[in-house]
Amino acid sequence: MPRPVASTPHLVWAAGHFFTLLAGLRYLLGTITFATSGGGLSAWYRIAYLGAIVSYGVVVYKSFGVPQANKAYIQRALMDENVQYLFLALYWWFTQPIFITLVPYTTFSLFHVLTFTRTTVIPMVFPTSPAASRAEGASEPIGFPTKVSKMIQGWVKQNYDPAMRFVAYSEVLVFARVTFGAILLRNSLLAPLFYAHFCRLRFYMSSFTRDAFQHVSSELDKATANPSCPELVRRAYLMGTDLISRYASTVLNLQNQAAPAAGGTRPAAAGGATAQ
């Protein structure tokens, strides 16, 4: 049996996720261990997002082709989750590093790297011989590469939903971080506005994101309804939630119009459409 051959776009896509995973973990580790920004730590942040831009760029190009300056193309593209994450990665790449923004991208890349390793790397390094293929299902011991492949497959399948819920809650935290960061002048005032637009699209397109925001909103409702909560805080919270609800509802018409064009099966995670 010939070894599987990965196409160039597929390899570029995978390389981007490898860079995002490794550089992202390096930057996150450096941040939580209170390493200084010196020594090139911020460079790992840029490398991680550069990998994300490459990976999502490959997927978007394979899905939509050369960008076209017409309304139908733009509407269809903007409702695609890979396009949304591509634009977001570009924005984070150009702005001041905010470590928590890397959490969703690193999580996605972990799953894509594992899947690529199982479906491409292991078969290329340990090709299955015709005799071994015919022996599948026999009582002979399973080889180590096959065991590793099955272990990866089982882990990915078992942890996919929890990981997507983790990503959704991390995106809620990112929204809170950039909002308070803008108030405290820790980041650009544009950041919460840009990220709010991203979140409202994710809210209507992702059940994980929707559940996360609704759960956090429910907990905040309970906390602010408590008699011990200052009235000023309660009023500010109600005003903020009203503004958010009004802003978020404006995406409904766009979502309904673009639904036929954005149809199809949901990828395993953002950036999941591996370019072949």
From TrEMBL:
GO BP terms, alphabetized: endoplasmic reticulum tubular network organization; membrane organization
Keywords: Membrane, Transmembrane, Transmembrane helix
Protein topology in the membrane: Multi-pass membrane protein
Membrane-crossing segments per the record: 12-37, 43-64, 85-105, 174-196
Localization per record: Membrane
GO terms under cellular component: endoplasmic reticulum; membrane
Main localization of the protein described in the UniProt heading: membrane
Sequence similarity: Belongs to the PER33/POM33 family.
Name listed for the protein in its UniProt record: Endoplasmic reticulum protein
Species of the source: Ceraceosorus guamensis
